Amino acid sequence: MSWISFAVFGYFLGAISVLGDKIILKKILPHPSSYAFWQGILSLGAVIFIPFGFSLIPTEKIFVSFLAGAFWLYGLFFFFTALRKADASNVLPVVLSLTAILIFMMEAVFLGHQFSRTDLLAGVLLVCGSVALSLEHRWGHRRKIRGFIIPAVATAFLFAFSTFLMKYLFGTESFFNVFIWSRGGLFLAGLSFVLSPDFRSEIVAGSKSLKRPRASTSVVINKIFGASGALSIFFAISRGPAALVNALQGLEYAFLFAIGALLSLWVPTLINESLSPKAIMQKIFGMIMVSLGLFVLYFYGK
């Protein structure tokens, strides 16, 4: 399987996980700090991959691994914060497009990656498709935009830094070793939330919700989907250009829209996806752009 196949599969699992995140933030853990905290704690589940390749690495690489994991978790916190202020269809275009641009710049400048014209064309198609898939046809009040734009931009920077550091580590260490060490960073970043009295009270409140077996089981299952998707995507990053892997994230929203549309018909109280003719045409246009980008990558890419 090529890195593209792993990326596609990872974003499919990621779409399921994002839907789970929406439901969990709505029904179980409404505070971003509480949900981010439990994301960090549950990341220790990565120890199951120790038999596949784990070893001590130099101290500086341990630091970089922890930093990559911490950036990712703090990015999730800001992403959840943005979702509290606006719909995912408003937040995602900012995060997707800015993250892709930042990673492209960092790979080109710091890692010296040479992108072919074909890669650049595919990247442009994928990013444009991502924006079309995730951009809402009406953005609402300007105050609403100002409310989510800062955490959305912070999310993009943190995700980009994390992905870049992981790509750097994959160039010198084995995949599973880097993945396991980086989860340590997520865990420590999760623990850091208890240092704030406000966050600590929110975490305690969330913990009471998790005492219900159905709630805690839902969070764990969703984390399994999310972790499996992240594992597949990071494996794709270890094998291909991180900028192009990230550009493929438009597929996640395509999957998200398709699954969300079905759930909107079956369980509208949980997911309410816009199914207006204008919204559907916009999504179809985005899917066509992403499909063209995939076609170029598969048949004409490096």
Give a written overview of the molecule.
This protein is mostly helical. About 2% of the residues have low confidence. It contains twelve helices and no strands. Helix 1 packs across helix 11, helix 2 packs across helix 8 and helix 5 packs parallel to helix 11. It has one domain. The protein is globular. Helices cover 79% and strands 0% of the residues.
Features:
EamA domain-containing protein, EmrE-like, transmembrane, 12 helices, 302 residues, mainly alpha, membrane
The end-to-end distance, rounded to whole angstroms, is 15 Å
Which band does the percent of strand residues land in? under 5%
Helix content: over 70%
Number of helices: 12
Let me know the largest β-sheet. none
The count of strands amounts to 0
Give the low-pLDDT segments: 137-142
Class by SSE composition: mainly alpha
The arrangement of helices and strands along the chain is: HHHHHHHHHHHH
Structural Rg: 19 Å
Domain tally: 1
Overall shape: it is globular
Mean pLDDT: 81
